[in-house]
Amino acid sequence: THNLSPCRFYLYPELSNDLVSTHPPGAHSLVAVSVGYFLEDFVDMLCNQKLHQSWELLFHHSVVIICFGIAVLLHQYVGFALVALLVEINSIFLHLRQILLMANLVHTTCYRLNSLINLGTYVVFRMATLAWMTRWLFLNRHNVPPAAYAVGTVGMAIMTPMNIILFYRLLRSDFFK
């Protein structure tokens, strides 16, 4: 997970200048493994969950599989996909929240602490990262081929509202009961 570290930009400054054709050693493999994870999780949800319970995550996974798959196949935009993986740092706390809910530990200090960390990492690693990625796409629209720009723009147009809605649900559930 060293490739996910924000200090990677410090250690590999070329990434800050070129998210299209440059990426740190191991980044392509990390994005490829991530595609495999999202594919496996997609199939697991299809087989083991009711569609009305998982359609949002299935949709999310579909977008990620397509976008990351393009990066892996073309060996382009791997740096951009690497930035997108920063979002997954928050997933640790989202998943821990789910485990604590399933264990009926909602009224514990652990749940409350996780809720605060979850919200903080959500703002930093989901909202801010998605905003930065959207801004990057817009500012670099003249340097990105139309097809790649369309895929990126559609991906961001899908992910941003989904994450805003999830943020609202988390706030409502954990802080405004």
According to DSSP, the number of beta strands is: 0
Number of H/I helices: 8
Morphology call? globular
Structural class: mainly alpha
Residue-averaged pLDDT: 90
- Classify the helix fraction into a percent range: over 70%
Overall tally of structural domains: 1
* End-to-end Cα distance: 36 Å
Low-confidence stretches: none
SS strand fraction: under 5%
Order of helices and strands: HHHHHHHH
Q: Kindly provide the radius of gyration, computed on alpha-carbon positions and rounded to a whole number of angstroms.
A: 17 Å
Largest sheet: none
Description of the molecule:
There is one protein chain. With 177 residues, this protein is mainly alpha-helical. Helix 3 packs antiparallel against helix 4 and helix 6 (91-102) runs antiparallel to helix 7. 23% of the residues are buried. The chain has one domain (26-175). The protein contains eight helices and no strands. It is found in: Membrane. This is TLCD2 protein.
